[in-house]
Design a protein that fits this description.
Layout lengths: L1 H26 L9 H68 L10
Length: 114
């Protein structure tokens, strides 16, 4: 039983050594911090972080501009089509009126046929 306790103690100590060594390695700060390059590195990092969203925004703006131009072109085309349809409809109405008047003047029709 005494040997078991010694083994338990030694394994417990080993576990604590591992934890403490890992903790120190994880939380240890770099031994040498170059104060002159650190702001430069931050500036470079910040620029890289800003460049990606900026490019994405520029890309979205370009896409929106293209969509706006397509909408304007489609709107203009639809407006022309509506104007052409209105003109065509007016001509059809005039032709229908002419045909109706011409049919009324045909000989041999009685008032019942009309």
């Amino acid at each position: 039983m005494q040997k078991f306790a010694e083994i338990e103690k030694s394994s417990g100590i080993e576990a604590r050594k591992d934890v403490s060594v890992r903790d120190r390695a994880t939380f240890r700060q770099p031994e040498s911090i170059d104060c002159e390059t650190s702001p430069d590195n931050l500036i470079k990092l910040l620029r890289r972080l800003v460049e990606m969203p900026t490019r994405e925004i520029d890309s979205l703006l370009s896409a929106l501009q293209l969509l706006r131009e397509k909408l304007q072109t489609a709107g203009n085309r639809i407006q022309r089509d509506i104007e052409e349809y209105a003109t065509l409809s007016q001509h059809v109405m005039q032709l229908t009126e002419i045909i109706s008047e011409s049919v009324k003047k045909l000989p041999g029709l009685t008032s019942v046929d009309r």
